[in-house]
Design brief:
Layout: E1 9-14, H1 20-34, E2 40-45, H2 57-65, E3 88-91, H3 94-107, E4 114-116, H4 144-167
Parallel strand pairs: 1-2, 1-3, 3-4
């Protein structure tokens, strides 16, 4: 197990950990490696309904087509007590963020490290308030184009996410 206390660390969270957060995990890992950054990157879901499942086949396809290696992945639920272990915990939707706040409160830890993925999206106007719809689109109920849209949003913010966590150290 990697010691998160010595390296910048990121946890990305969506619903089941098979689409959005898993895609972000793959993209962040790829970008960090290409930039020579030693960053701990992980992903999880707020639900356990997909626990143990691989990245959704449709997400794998768009990632592979975009040139990413598809790692072994087993979806998992956010564990009690782990939020404080990460420098940055990124929610894919406001609903995910609310769930993460509840977990942090239940665990008795601060929530200053919990942010929205799209807060780092350079295509949004600077100063876009967090109360604005910052949800990363959920491709689950859609088709191939929906997964491509999600890929675009996730890729768009990835470098800024890495900059934020490495600059903070």
């Amino acid at each position: 197990m990697t010691d998160r206390s010595t390296k910048p660390s990121i946890l990305v969270v969506c619903t089941g950990n098979i689409c959005r957060s898993a895609m972000a995990d793959v993209i962040l890992t790829d970008r960090a490696a290409k930039r020579g950054l030693d960053v701990v990157i992980d992903s999880a879901g707020i639900s356990d309904e997909e626990a143990g499942n691989p990245i959704d086949d449709r997400a794998q396809r768009v990632l592979r087509d975009a040139g990413y290696e598809i790692p072994w992945h087993a979806a998992r639920q956010v564990k009690s007590g782990e939020l404080a272990d990460y420098d940055l915990v990124l929610a894919m939707t406001d609903r995910h963020r609310a769930a993460l706040y509840r977990i942090a409160e239940r665990d008795g830890v601060g929530a200053d490290n919990i942010r929205m993925w799209r807060e780092f999206d350079p295509s949004l106007p600077e100063g876009t308030p967090v109360g604005t719809d910052l949800d990363v689109p959920d491709p689950w109920y859609g088709g191939h184009e929906d997964f491509l849209d999600t890929l675009e949003v996730v890729e768009g913010a990835a470098d800024n996410v890495l900059d934020a966590v490495t600059d903070a150290r």
